[in-house]
Amino acid sequence: MIIAIDGPAASGKGTIARQIAAVYGLHHLDTGLLYRAVAKAVLDAGYLPSDVARATAAAAALDPKEFDDNTLKLPAITEAASVVAAVPQVREALMNYQRQFAMRPPGAVLDGRDIGTVIAPGADVKLFVIATPEVRAARRAIELRSRGEAADEREVLADLLRRDERDARRSAAPLKAAPDAHLLDTTHLGIDAAFRAAVDIIEAVRTGRKRS
Ligand code: CDP
Questions:
Q1: Domain count of the chain?
Q2: Which residues are within 8 A (CB) of 211 and not within 5 positions of it... i.e. 6 or more apart?
Q3: What CATH number is attached to the domain comprising 66?
């Protein structure tokens, strides 16, 4: 089984994806880490994330061992990730790895922006996870503070909106729901309730029922 979970920044898709993978015994790939690792490689080498040739070369040389790096979640990497992610050659270079990951038995949950539309259009279940920008910013600020970073909620909100806009407007695999994706709005849902709502959708699809 392949489950595609897409959505904007800090919508809760990563948490849902991890939990779903654990209960269904599936592999999990946070595909944002690929773009973050590319961004970090470019920045570490002293180049700008908008340097198409450098970003493309970094994507081609990507080593999955780099995905464990804690610094990938730093705000500077986050911002640079959305810049390299807009480069079609970067996306192309990362496609095979994601598709092969999805095909590994017994299946996988992948979360990102283009899983249901580009990486795994034939996924068994597609979720598109959303929440209001204010709620997403509040969640991201808590997450940043828990890692010991200072976080001004208004700045976090501005960063999220800028990134959402860049992700949605780019021509290569823009952030958008696949036509057959199930929308899951987590604005008023805590972690457990969001997880249960996701399981309800997956079970409804698996058993061929309509959502109640
Ligand atoms: O956790 P958060 O939603 O803030 O970020 P992420 O999922 O780690 O993604 C970081 C950036 O990578 C996004 O802003 C996108 O520009 C890019 N990305 C993408 O283009 N396609 C994906 N499948 C995953 C991430």
A1: 1
A2: 182, 200, 201, 204
A3: 3.40.50.300
